[in-house]
Amino acid sequence: MAGILEKRQSLHRRLATQQEMSDELRSQLGRMQALANIGMISAMIAHEMNNILTPLGNYAYLAMKHPEDGELTRKALEKTTANSRRAAKILDSMLAMANGGPRKMDWHSVKTMIEQIFSCMARDFSKDQIKVVVEVDDELTVFAEDIALQQVLMNMILNARRAMLPKGGTLTISAQQNTGSMRIEITDTGCGIERCDLEKIFQPFYTTKTESSQAERHGAGLGLAFCKRVVEAHNGAISVDSQPGRGTTFRISLPTP
Length: 257
Ligand SMILES: Nc1ncnc2c1ncn2[C@@H]1O[C@H](COP(=O)(O)OP(=O)(O)OP(=O)(O)O)[C@@H](O)[C@H]1O
Ligand SMILES: [Mg+2]
Fold this sequence. Notes:
The protein is of the alpha+beta class. 54% of the residues lie in helices and 19% in strands. The chain has 6 helices and 7 strands; from the N terminus they run H-H-E-H-E-E-H-E-E-H-H-E-E. A 5-stranded mixed β-sheet has the order 2-4-5-7-6, with helices on one face. It has one domain: Heat Shock Protein 90 (2-Layer Sandwich). The site of adenosine-5'-triphosphate (ATP) has 23 residues, from helix 4 and helix 6.
């Protein structure tokens, strides 16, 4: 009898120790997940800052190179100031995202948002033989955090541009209000994506842009992972259709409240 009791007590002690170990492991896992999240958010902040620093530097360089052209210098400095303000807003928005989700949701004109992206990017698409077509009604509005959604569209536009180099092609951006949701599409006539790669493109750090030149930097593989995260934080969805050698369409669908 005494032997059975002793065995039982020892089993209880072992069970309690195992429970403590399992609790400790669970809390370690939680801490590691939080750290991984911080790491990912930091990488994404760096990525978006990079996207905005390039045009910022280009505008400042333009002003410095042509001090005699007062009008050009003024415009370039205006853009530099606007882009610096934009960089600060992007930081705010991303920190809010790290802390749960978009905070500054409001109605915004889709067309104005797109115009602002092109103005901020400081890239001449026609120089790369790329025709840009924007098929968006003037009165169309979307409920979103504008700065975050603009970064999403900028990433997709930059990807589309790169996919069409060096041949050129057509970039079409369209938007439609459907029942309960706003749909934005970005279509290019570029290299397309192989079917087997389609499921990988939204994974962080997946990139096929491993070669860099003076004009084009190599990829970090964070653009689409960022887009997915932002769209999902808006309770929206993102999808892609692609035909290798013919082109790609990215679709964003955002709920209308
Ligand atoms: N429009 C597109 N046409 C063809 N391939 C695309 C397109 N958009 C994305 N891809 C593919 O998806 C990959 C991942 O895109 P993502 O934007 O996440 O990273 P990246 O462009 O490689 O680097 P970066 O972090 O600088 O954006 C790209 O490397 C490319 O292979
Ligand atoms: Mg990209």
